Amino acid sequence: MAVQAALNARVGEVTERIRQRSQDARRRYLDLIAAASESGPKRRGLGCANQAHGFAACGPTDKLELRAGDGGNLAIVTAYNDMLSAHQPYERFPELIRTAAREAGGVAQVAGGVPAMCDGVTQGEAGMELSLFSREVIALSTAVALSHQTFDSSVYLGICDKIVPGLVIGALSFGHLPAVFLPSGPMTSGLPNDEKTRIRQLFAEGKVDRAALLEAESQSYHGPGTCTFYGTANTNQMMMEIMGVHLPGASFINPNTPLRDALTREGAKRALAISALGNHYTPLGRMLDEKAFVNGVVGLHATGGSTNHTLHIVAMAAAAGITLTWDDFSDLADVVPLLARVYPNGKADVNHFHAAGGMAFVIRELLGAGLLHENVETVWGTGLSGYTAEPMLDGKGNLAWRDGAAASGDEALLRPAGNPFQATGGLKVLDGNLGRAVTKTSAVAPERHIIEAPAKVFHSQEELQAAFKAGSLTGDFIAVVRFQGPKANGMPELHKLMPPLGVLQDRGQKVALVTDGRMSGASGKVPSAIHVTPEAANGGAIAKIRDGDMVRLDGVNGHLTVLVDEAEWAARPLATHDLSSSHVGVGRELFAPLRAAVGAADRGASIFDRTAA
């Protein structure tokens, strides 16, 4: 069992100010879910025809159970498809869950499906402009799945980038229901990530052909499970575990293994055990409070997680009536040490991270340093100290838990809080006359944390790639890629920028990126100020920059500034850009209402905001 140190003063201060600023919206939300739960399970109050429709397709035993109304009915909300490697294993999960529910005296039904797109497939393509908005569609789809009000608890089958945040937002709209998230786990290790990156850069330089590139990518992404680098998908899993929505140690067990199946069955049973039908009622909306979200942000910093979560955690918290700000992220980063170096912050992948001690070790270290709230509700029924255990199968093949590693198995990738890779977290919030932005310092060499260079302005990643191929990206420069925000074109990830910029950096040029778009968890070694807000399409100052302006990206002191005379800068007009080509085709015309309604990046880039007055 972990030893809980006195809570760090900064963590306590940040938590308290979040509580105070959120108290009205949080109270409204809690009143809403209390009203939804006060009359007991909704299915018992449904009309006979309604109930008959709900169990018409069930087998005789399940139908009898639901007719009697004594056992729990467990909703399965699934993001299964067999195109997405991380979601393909979910094909088997509903039957595992149904069996486990029956063993626990209940019933499980697939309540509905939600879309699950793969950012890896859509990178650099038009479909990527739907990616961030798919989070809102997933939230809406989750609400539709649960709208039949015939369920007592819920489990969620989703793991990747926008899918987990969307499921959480949707689940919080039914926050009176308990919720357990069931991951599928990472694929086994393939081609080392640094080798994959090397071949990508060689291809960008024209030194290897497409066949060599495809072979390298195929060796990297080679089987069922999440991609093994520490991007948004695996950051999601860290976050769900450290916020107590997974079972302890569930995040990084490989798919299609006996241990993964045992955890899936146990998660289903646990979801029924914490329903309102029993004595341990743990509704999700009450469980995910200010302390839980602070724990999520602390975990993000300590592990060098995805920058996408400066959007997603804000949006998820808002769905629970809690207002998180980038200032909260920044202030927590000042006191949370970086404990992990997993690609792109190092050479190891998440399988190596798990083998070295994984989440149990990280949580133990952070509790011991007073950086996490231990006294939180979790689906496991313990405080967070219960998450310092790791799952195993005993000699009879039954699920059991043992104390997690007390020491790191490899301090090249996982270190104790007393000997971190760096004293502060992996993210930094930037402010200046360009607005606000986020940078991921943990992936960047310290000598590149401050870059000052003239701007080269582009309006798409294709423009920058064309300039690279033409040989015109000479000397030191900061690439400004604008009109890539949520209102402009859905805020796509811009990973096609990394190979050419990485090549130029390796040649000795000082380069950096400033954009109102996203880079996410795969942000690499090139300094990048991302999520610039206000965005160019919404009157942001990034639309004022001209070629040759000196720009300073200071990841040490947290500044992002254009070094132009103040009066000239104030008088300079905003550039415009024709975005019509990004608003049609590949379904993009259907998302016009979302582009119109979406909020700013520092408010989660969401169309939902329960914290608004």
UniProtKB/TrEMBL annotation:
<feature type="domain" description="Dihydroxy-acid/6-phosphogluconate dehydratase C-terminal">
    <location>
        <begin position="413"/>
        <end position="605"/>
    </location>
</feature>
<dbReference type="InterPro" id="IPR020558">
    <property type="entry name" value="DiOHA_6PGluconate_deHydtase_CS"/>
</dbReference>
<comment type="pathway">
    <text>Carbohydrate metabolism; Entner-Doudoroff pathway.</text>
</comment>
<dbReference type="GO" id="GO:0009255">
    <property type="term" value="P:Entner-Doudoroff pathway through 6-phosphogluconate"/>
</dbReference>
<feature type="binding site">
    <location>
        <position position="227"/>
    </location>
    <ligand>
        <name>[4Fe-4S] cluster</name>
    </ligand>
</feature>
<dbReference type="GO" id="GO:0046872">
    <property type="term" value="F:metal ion binding"/>
</dbReference>
<keyword id="KW-0408">Iron</keyword>
<keyword id="KW-0004">4Fe-4S</keyword>
<dbReference type="InterPro" id="IPR056740">
    <property type="entry name" value="ILV_EDD_C"/>
</dbReference>
<feature type="domain" description="Dihydroxy-acid/6-phosphogluconate dehydratase N-terminal">
    <location>
        <begin position="74"/>
        <end position="384"/>
    </location>
</feature>
<dbReference type="InterPro" id="IPR042096">
    <property type="entry name" value="Dihydro-acid_dehy_C"/>
</dbReference>
<comment type="function">
    <text>Catalyzes the dehydration of 6-phospho-D-gluconate to 2-dehydro-3-deoxy-6-phospho-D-gluconate.</text>
</comment>
<dbReference type="Pfam" id="PF00920">
    <property type="entry name" value="ILVD_EDD_N"/>
</dbReference>
<feature type="binding site">
    <location>
        <position position="160"/>
    </location>
    <ligand>
        <name>[4Fe-4S] cluster</name>
    </ligand>
</feature>
<keyword id="KW-0479">Metal-binding</keyword>
<keyword id="KW-0411">Iron-sulfur</keyword>
<dbReference type="GO" id="GO:0004456">
    <property type="term" value="F:phosphogluconate dehydratase activity"/>
</dbReference>
<protein>
    <recommendedName>
        <fullName>Phosphogluconate dehydratase</fullName>
        <ecNumber>4.2.1.12</ecNumber>
    </recommendedName>
</protein>
<dbReference type="GO" id="GO:0019521">
    <property type="term" value="P:D-gluconate metabolic process"/>
</dbReference>
<keyword id="KW-0311">Gluconate utilization</keyword>
<comment type="similarity">
    <text>Belongs to the IlvD/Edd family.</text>
</comment>
<dbReference type="GO" id="GO:0051539">
    <property type="term" value="F:4 iron, 4 sulfur cluster binding"/>
</dbReference>
<dbReference type="InterPro" id="IPR037237">
    <property type="entry name" value="IlvD/EDD_N"/>
</dbReference>
<keyword id="KW-0119">Carbohydrate metabolism</keyword>
<dbReference type="InterPro" id="IPR004786">
    <property type="entry name" value="6-phosphgluc_deHydtase"/>
</dbReference>
<keyword id="KW-0456">Lyase</keyword>
<dbReference type="Pfam" id="PF24877">
    <property type="entry name" value="ILV_EDD_C"/>
</dbReference>
<dbReference type="InterPro" id="IPR000581">
    <property type="entry name" value="ILV_EDD_N"/>
</dbReference>
<dbReference type="GO" id="GO:0005829">
    <property type="term" value="C:cytosol"/>
</dbReference>
